[in-house]
Amino acid sequence: MKLSLWTYEGPPHVGAMRVATGMKGVHYVLHAPQGDTYADLLFTMIERRDHRPPVTYTTFQARDLGSDTAELFARACRDAYERYRPEALIVGASCTAELIQDDPGGLAEAIGLPIPVIPLELPSYQRKENFGADETFFQLVRHLAGPAERTDRVSANILGPTGLGFRHRDDIVEVTALLNEIGIDVNVVAPMGAAPSDLTRLAAAHFNVLLYPETGEAAARWLERTHGQPFTKTVPIGVGATRDFIEEAASLAGLPARADETRLRQPWYSASVDSTYLTGKRVFVFGDATHVAAAARIARDEMGFEVAGLGCYNREFARSIRALAKDYGVEAVISDDYLDVEEAIAALQPELILGTQMERHIGKRLGIPCAVISSPVHVQDFPARYSPQAGWEGANVIFDTWVHPLVMGLEEHLLTMFREDFEFHDQAGPSHHGGSAPRPAASPRDISEQAKTGEVIWLADAETELKKVPFFVRGKARRNTEAFAAERGVNEISIDTLYEAKAHYAR
Amino acid sequence: MNVRPGNAPLSGCADTPVLKERGQHEVFCGLTGIIWLHRKMQDAFFLVVGSRTCAHLLQSAAGVMIFAEPRFGTAILEEKDLAGLADAHEELDREVAKLLSRRPDIRQVFLVGSCPSEVIKLDLARAAERLSALHGPRIRVINYSGSGIETTFTQGEDACLAAMVPGLPATEAKELLVVGALPDVVEDQALSLLGQLGIDTVRVLPARHVDETPAIGTHTVYALTQPFLGDTSAALDRRGARRIAAPFPFGEEGTTAWLWAVAQEFGVAREHFDRVTEAPRARAKAAVARRAEQLCGKSVFFFPDSQLEIPLARFLTRECGMTAVEIGTPFLHRDLMAPELALIAPGPRLSEGQDVDLQLDRARADRPDLSVCGLGLANPLEAEGLATKWAIELVFTPVHFYEQAGDLAELFARPLNRRSLLKNHPFFGSGKSSGGSLEEAGGQTAPLKVAT
């Protein structure tokens, strides 16, 4: 048992729903108790879909427990087929149904429906949402993708986009454009937007673009093994990664690499003098492994930040993220416990957090600016406007998104210079967007605590001087000064101590 | 305006046959009740023993509240917990001890059962006893089930309160117990009105703090403020308390009827009652009348959600002039609902339980002006051109008693008002589209609509 409040990922059957909801012509019969339909609203509210997810829940109740539930399941399958006439049915159990040990696969097969019925084994007590999506898509591909003639013109499939994916909708558009510029057609995009009949055509493509390894890797590997389709290893998020991706895709296609970079503004924006103050800003990167790896590269190589720490919540990718962290000379945080992440951020005192909605709130609490780079995300990160992460436009979007809270940070600094002004008092604390959310009372962990331990005391004018330091580096300045004083056996911090410490730690 | 006079036909809907359905239920489970219960009971912690799905549900239902250090959490069962039961109890004890050491302000812990914990027959009642002995008397540990296999949405509150009743201290005093978690502002208004009527020995269940826990005995009379408290009512009856039958305090009429039922029990004179209630009644009537203009003559369809549907249908039909087409409720408690059903004019279908596909077919055939439904159905119905009001808001927003009557009507009027305001509404604006599904596949952009 593990006490949890936030979860980065839902249970695996939600991953299966992401595949079914992203596709057309698939229906999912889920053996589940009343209440599991809550997951519908992730799609209808957060992703703002205009139709119900194609999922039928058996809704068994306490009085059904026993032999009755199996019959309930069979009836739900028959009804779902009659009503929706899908091209294929996927069947499985939610966490509770897994315990009562009906066999959805066997039961559904026994009905003898005239369409493919694909059973899912999703171990709810071991695995999570991303696994559920990856496994479901893999099973669909394995059951449906037969051999096929390669298309005359060079074509590729785009694998991995699902319902409820962070910017999947717009990334598809961007990657399709990148491929078209090289002269590569898109054969099938799947799961998002594909029908089971489209999956039967997968093998007609010359190779696969694995856009999101979290949700498409098992299928890509199977297609490579079974149908000899190689797949791309670079995810085109960031300018460098996009260029590498174009090279990789072109070489898989046997075509010269070509790209139209006229829309790309990120490199110039980043080179322009206004961006100089971004140099060496310490960032902490957390999210799913794919977006973290991409973001770390952008942060260091394209924005000139210092990656102060990184990590991911999906353990499936722990090894690759640990290796990546080594490259950046930092320790990876591999955890699905937000308290671990909060602790790491508090210890590192970065100047910018790149993370999920959880990190957005951690940032708010700690007064550190934050931008969102990965699921899980709230409704505002399924925007109406075009906002990909991938490709050239993705690079433009990322530049704006990351810099925005920092520019706001500078604005706040200017405001604090007018702190004596009646409008700009210190209680109007910072938020991730530089709003005026009142800072929670958590912040004064400062002098009294120190005074109690009898180690270091801040003199009043040093404390006043510290307040002049911009809020987003104030925590670090405080820590450094205290460490500096403690090292030297100084137990009172004066303005001089503060500035001696600053000189000592100057980068 | 077409508002009916206060004296309704005696029978109303009481004899209307109820359509009972089983099938897919598009509803929340009882765990969701934790979201508002923990706000009410300020020194309680709700510990769900369940799966990742349960944690994910609470996260989805709590929205941004989850970032405000709320007093609930889920002990997520892992594979090793499923293997042997003795081990699971040790694990639970450890997690509870850890929790209590981290949150010294907690005085009550609710061990909340879920579908997985019920199916593996984890004995949380015994665990609660054991933990009470271990951490008591300062900390009280109570068990109830909020599982989907046993409870629907607001029934979670019922299960919680019912579990508290056997442990309430005994009293011989004649006291009024007001039962049901209300927002503090509403509760204060109710207590103030009762005080003005001269009824001052009033207790509430649930209380805000463990130290204010009400006592109960054979002289206790109680009034329900929420319609979904059947089990709690039965538990109170078992302790010898007596229920005051009344409609629920929604709208001017419902509030007055509720207060008058209580007032009669305490021998309050009609003149005094009228004097006290006159001003707030007038305020409530005026506030409702302003919104009722938009609602009058419109039809409403209730999908089952919270058991508030019948009282709300009564309010909308009698005070706002709406017509009810179907009133769906997850559970119909005949006894508690009798005063409400008597007030609703015959006509609407009554349904209990749900087969969501069949019910959607009925709604499509009826084409009601307003559908009250859950968030999983709301946007899809809007996309089919049906105006909706999402039901969960009715549970979280202050809607009871006089001062909220106007707000309550406003909640239903706003979606209708909005669609008349939106000039480019995809289904009702001047550029009306086919109403088909939007393309979600990338790379295919919808053609630009030409404004007419």
TrEMBL record, chain A:
UniProt-listed Pfam families: Oxidored_nitro (PF00148), PCP_red (PF08369)
Names of the cofactor(s): [4Fe-4S] cluster
Annotated catalytic residues: D274 (proton donor)
Keywords: 4Fe-4S, ATP-binding, Bacteriochlorophyll biosynthesis, Chlorophyll biosynthesis, Iron, Iron-sulfur, Metal-binding, Nucleotide-binding, Oxidoreductase, Photosynthesis
Top-level EC class as recorded in UniProt: oxidoreductase
Residue ranges occupied by any Nitrogenase/oxidoreductase component domain in the UniProt entry: 12-406
GO biological process, alphabetically ordered: light-independent bacteriochlorophyll biosynthetic process; photosynthesis, dark reaction
Start and end residues of each stretch annotated as Disordered: 426-446
Catalyzed chemical reaction(s): chlorophyllide a + oxidized 2[4Fe-4S]-[ferredoxin] + 2 ADP + 2 phosphate = protochlorophyllide a + reduced 2[4Fe-4S]-[ferredoxin] + 2 ATP + 2 H2O
Database matches in InterPro entries: ChlB/BchB/BchZ, LI-POR_suB-like_C, Nase/OxRdtase_comp1, P-CP_red_C, Protochl_reductB, Protochlorophyllide_Rdtase
Residues the entry annotates as binding [4Fe-4S] cluster: D36
List of residues binding substrate: G409, L410
Molecular-function GO terms, alphabetical: 4 iron, 4 sulfur cluster binding; ATP binding; metal ion binding; oxidoreductase activity, acting on iron-sulfur proteins as donors; oxidoreductase activity, acting on the CH-CH group of donors, iron-sulfur protein as acceptor
E.C. designation(s): 1.3.7.7
Pathway this chain belongs to: Porphyrin-containing compound metabolism; bacteriochlorophyll biosynthesis (light-independent)
Cofactor descriptive note: Binds 1 [4Fe-4S] cluster per heterodimer. The cluster is bound at the heterodimer interface by residues from both subunits.
Domain Light-independent protochlorophyllide reductase subunit B-like C-terminal: 458-502
The family this protein is said to belong to: Belongs to the ChlB/BchB/BchZ family.
Function field: Component of the dark-operative protochlorophyllide reductase (DPOR) that uses Mg-ATP and reduced ferredoxin to reduce ring D of protochlorophyllide (Pchlide) to form chlorophyllide a (Chlide). This reaction is light-independent. The NB-protein (BchN-BchB) is the catalytic component of the complex.
Assembly, per entry: Protochlorophyllide reductase is composed of three subunits; BchL, BchN and BchB. Forms a heterotetramer of two BchB and two BchN subunits.
PANTHER family recorded: LIGHT-INDEPENDENT PROTOCHLOROPHYLLIDE REDUCTASE SUBUNIT B
Protein name as it appears in the record: Light-independent protochlorophyllide reductase subunit B
Organism field: Kangsaoukella pontilimi
Gene behind this protein: bchB
Automatic annotation (TrEMBL), chain B:
Record-level Gene Ontology MF annotations: 4 iron, 4 sulfur cluster binding; ATP binding; metal ion binding; oxidoreductase activity, acting on iron-sulfur proteins as donors; oxidoreductase activity, acting on the CH-CH group of donors, iron-sulfur protein as acceptor
Keywords, in A-Z order: 4Fe-4S, ATP-binding, Bacteriochlorophyll biosynthesis, Chlorophyll biosynthesis, Iron, Iron-sulfur, Metal-binding, Nucleotide-binding, Oxidoreductase, Photosynthesis
Pfam families xref list: Oxidored_nitro
Domain of life (superkingdom): Bacteria
EC number: 1.3.7.7
Pathway: Porphyrin-containing compound metabolism; bacteriochlorophyll biosynthesis (light-independent)
Catalytic activity: chlorophyllide a + oxidized 2[4Fe-4S]-[ferredoxin] + 2 ADP + 2 phosphate = protochlorophyllide a + reduced 2[4Fe-4S]-[ferredoxin] + 2 ATP + 2 H2O
Positions of the Nitrogenase/oxidoreductase component domain: 29-413
Binding site for [4Fe-4S] cluster: C29, C54, C115
Subunit structure: Protochlorophyllide reductase is composed of three subunits; BchL, BchN and BchB. Forms a heterotetramer of two BchB and two BchN subunits.
PANTHER family from the UniProt entry: LIGHT-INDEPENDENT PROTOCHLOROPHYLLIDE REDUCTASE SUBUNIT N
Designated name of the protein: Light-independent protochlorophyllide reductase subunit N
The species this protein was found in: Kangsaoukella pontilimi
